[in-house]
Every structure is written in structure tokens, then in C-alpha cells.
Amino acid sequence: DGGITQSPKYLFRKEGQNVTLSCEQNLNHDAMYWYRQDPGQGLRLIYYSQIVNDFQKGDIAEGYSVSREKKESFPLTVTSAQKNPTAFYLCASSPRGGDEQFFGPGTRLTVL
Amino acid sequence: AQSVTQPDIHITVSEGASLELRCNYSYGATPYLFWYVQSPGQGLQLLLKYFSGDTLVQGIKGFEAEFKRSQSSFNLRKPSVHWSDAAEYFCAVGPILTGGGNKLTFGTGTQLKVEL
Known about the structure:
The complex is a heterodimer.
Chain A: E1 4-7, E2 10-13, E3 19-25, E4 31-37, E5 43-51, E6 54-57, E7 64-66, E8 76-78, E9 87-94, E10 102-103, E11 107-111
Chain B: E1 3-5, E2 10-14, E3 19-21, E4 24-26, E5 33-38, E6 44-50, E7 56-58, E8 64-68, E9 73-78, E10 87-93, E11 105-106, E12 110-115
């Protein structure tokens, strides 16, 4: 089945540690996105990538980094510089020329 | 800058009753508008979208939305709500980007509770 995979579903880390969240898609989509969701704040865009080896900052990129070495993969690293990393993280993708974004199931990150 | 306002944080309706969720947007050009639904702890699913043409758009699960340019609104409606519609609903606006993809701004969401 085609879709977007995010792993793991739940992730726990100690404060000060970097952590990488996985996002893989087999939809052959060109564009991929990372969002952060906090209660009562909706979704906020962290980074997006329209093509392999290129990505752009979204509205809240500070403390995060990404890479796009393969079309299928868009991992997000939450660095120790992110002041409040505990949140629900959603990955999405969309086809070139398309409009709808397709979302993965999300990863809930808790920093202790 | 683009923005979306969903003025209702929580809405409770009885099963079988009609539903309207409000969405107001701010956008400099013709907007690309979306409604998504999210079940607890899950990703988002697209309900419907509007780019141009008929201002009343039909979506999945019996939902519809009406684009009103004069009011900068894109309200979501359903004639008869089912218990399974209980979820969080997000309105979003954003352009299609040169080079592909789109850059969406989401509202803060409306949590729908359905009473049996």
C-alpha cells in the first residue's frame, strides 16, 4: 500500500540530546513537509522540500534541521537548541503540480 | 501574510443534527482553501478543497463547504452528523508554490464532540 510512514509512534529523549524523526513515503511525491502540532495551536510548518537536495525553512525552523538525500525520505532532527521540543510531529507529502498534502500518522516526542 | 481563524475551539452537537464549522481567512490573492480532519493521535485527512469555480464544494463523508469571497469565509457544513464525525477539524489556506508543492497555513482547529 502506498503511504507515508513515520517511526516511531512515540519517542522519549533526555533534555540536551539530539533526536531524529523518520519520514518515508512511497507515493513518488516530489514535495515533503514537516509540521509541529501543539494543543490549541494547530499545525506549524518547520521545513519543506520541493525536490531532492533542496529544502526551505518554514515558520518555526529554529532548533531543527532536515536533509533530503532521497526522494522517499525526509528526516527531521530536533536539536538540543530547540527550547521546547515536546510535541506531536507530522510529516506530509504532495505530488509535483498537486495541491493536496498527504499526512503520515505522526510521532509524539517527549523530552524529559 | 496569510492567516486562518477558526473562532470555535469546541463545538458539541447531537447525533443527527446539522453542523457548521466556521473558517475565516486572510490572503492577498485568490485563495487555495482546504478542510482537514484529524482523529486523536492520528495524521490529517483531506475532506475537501477549493481553488476556483463553483463556490459550493462537496467532499468526503458527506461534508460540504461554501467559499464566500465577500466574507473571506470557507465554512464547513454537514446536514446530519454521525457519532463517528467526532474529531478535530482544521481549515487551511495557501498558495501552490513555483516548483511544486504548496505552503499551507492552518487554523488552530475546532474540536467536535457528538452527543448520542
